[in-house]
Amino acid sequence: MEGLIMAAQLLLALTILVGLHEFGHFIFARIFNIRVNKFYIFFDFLFPLPNVLNFALWKKKKGDTEYGLGWFPLGGYVDIAGMIDETKDASQLSSTPEPWEFRSKPAWQRLFVMLGGIIVNVILGILIFSGVKYVWGDEDYTKEEINKRGIFAYPMAEKIGLKTGDKITKINGKDYETLSELRGSITNENVLFTVERDSTTLEIPIPNELIDKVAQKNYFIDPIIPFEVDRVTKGMPAEKSGLRSGDKIVSFNGTPITYYQQIQPLIKKSANKKVDLGIERKGTSLVIHPVVTADSAIGFYPKSLLTSTKAMYSLPEAFKVGSVEALGVIPQQINGFARIFKGHISPKNALTGPVGLAQMFSPKWDWEKFWALTGLLSMALAFMNALPIPALDGGHVIVLLYEMISGRKPSEKFMERTQQIGTFILLALMVYVLFNDTLKLLF
Question: Which E.C. number(s) belong to this protein (predicted)?
């Protein structure tokens, strides 16, 4: 059920993003009096074969445009008259151009039509980021709160010299403010942590290749998290043994527990075993005896006792903060691609397919997380479409810029060939990420 909820959120997010992306092309085509034959959410054919399994779940003709919902749940498209795309080839454009066709318009107008989807995705991303800031604000842990107890170092962090209890005081010699800033710093190159450990100050370099291991979903660092039981799962050992919301777990088979990261490995090592769980409940000490499940679970959710800070914004403040954060996604994407080419990140860990994207969403419907991820995906979609790859908007833009500079318009046959090459590249990439997603899911 949780997988279906995550998949549904991804499908809704992509439907919104792709629908509005295609609307960007549509609206600019209409501004310049270019006829749009079709506007579809999803494909009404077996993509990328425009003449195979042609049918729609719903369609309606209004004016010159047929609006519809296709059966193949992958993106969507607009069929702009006189333009070579995934729905037509050069042979369909052999007649004399009509005044209302894309190919008969000046290059600068065609450029705006091709940029329309990217423009709308950027605007949408800014609006979503701003809306999230306005409705939910910003919640984070401050540097001071983290350093009351220090960080918990997972094995990957221990390998580079960090230890549990370390207090990270500076990043590249500069102060930082929040946990998000600390975690995000490792996406940059040549990072240096200044660490306080037992009254000693250390400088610990973060290897550039560490980001590749983090991309594999291995944990790096967290704050040390003191906790209490938030809620217990019905029918699980925690409930059956009497664990209650508000209980503090203070020992596990006699091992003292002061923070959440201590209990996780102990539970994992105790599958199918009866354990002694020491708890404190309203000043009273108790011991309960749950039997850990075969898949190493007891069945409770922790509540962090770290004190977070929450900032709420007025509408103008939210727009300012949201715009900066949304536009900041673009240099992050550029940096990510640069690090792939430098060998810091392997493509298989950097590229995420539908399974990986779905897993980013909450297993329970969470509107805050849904909109935050949708805004992020909108900016990422704008960036990806701007890449100079044939069949993507960026590929068309490069050809149009060449035409505007040289004064020479490429032939329809050339445009058809570049479209075919681009489609092949995109399909190969899709197969790669799907295969990669499957491997991650299995292993």
Answer: 3.4.24.-
- Strand residues in 172-271 grouped as ranges (E): 191-197, 200-206, 221-223, 227-232, 248-252, 255-256
Structural domain harbouring 215:
143-222
> What would the two tokens of residue 9 be?
């959120």
Report how far residue 117's alpha carbon sits from residue 98's, in angstroms, rounded to the nearest whole number.
24
Number of domains the chain is built from: 3
| CATH code for the domain in which residue 260 is found | 2.30.42.10
Q: Which of 179, 202, 222 is a domain's end point?
A: 222
What are the beta bridge partners of residue 203? 194
Sequence-distant (6+) residues with CB within 8 A of 171 are 181, 182, 185, 191, 192, 193, 194
Distance CA 63, CA 114 (A): 23
Q: Round to whole Å and give the CA distance between 405 and 403.
A: 6
Distance, in Å, from the CA atom of 199 to the CA atom of 42, rounded to the nearest integer, reads 60
Same-domain pairing of 51 and 78:
yes
Residue 244 token pair:
């209650």
Candidates 12, 10, 4, 2; CA nearest to 364 is 2
Angle at 392 between CA 387 and CA 394, to 5 degrees: 45
What are φ and ψ of residue 112, in 5° steps?
A: -65, -35
Computed from CA positions of residues 274, 279, 282, 285, in that sequence, does the dihedral angle turn out positive or negative?
A: positive
* Residue 186 one-letter amino acid: I
pLDDT by residue, tens only, the chain of 443 residues: 778 899 899 999 999 999 999 999 999 999 999 999 999 999 999 877 778 899 999 999 999 999 999 999 877 899 999 887 655 555 555 677 889 999 899 999 999 999 999 999 999 999 999 999 999 999 999 999 999 999 999 999 999 999 999 999 999 999 999 999 999 898 899 999 999 999 899 999 999 988 888 876 668 999 999 999 999 999 999 999 999 999 999 999 999 999 999 999 999 999 999 999 999 999 999 999 999 999 889 999 999 999 999 999 999 999 999 999 999 999 999 988 888 888 888 877 777 777 788 888 888 889 999 999 999 999 999 999 999 988 889 999 999 999 999 988 887 778 778 877 887 888 787 787 777 767 666 55
**Of 222, 241, 271, which closes a domain?**
222
**What angle is formed at CA 113 by the lines to CA 111 and CA 117, rounded to 5 degrees?**
115
Which residue from 156, 132, 130 is spatially nearest to 219, judged by alpha carbons? 156
As to burial, measured by CB atoms within 10 angstroms (0-12 exposed, 13-18 middle, 19+ buried), residue 310 is: exposed
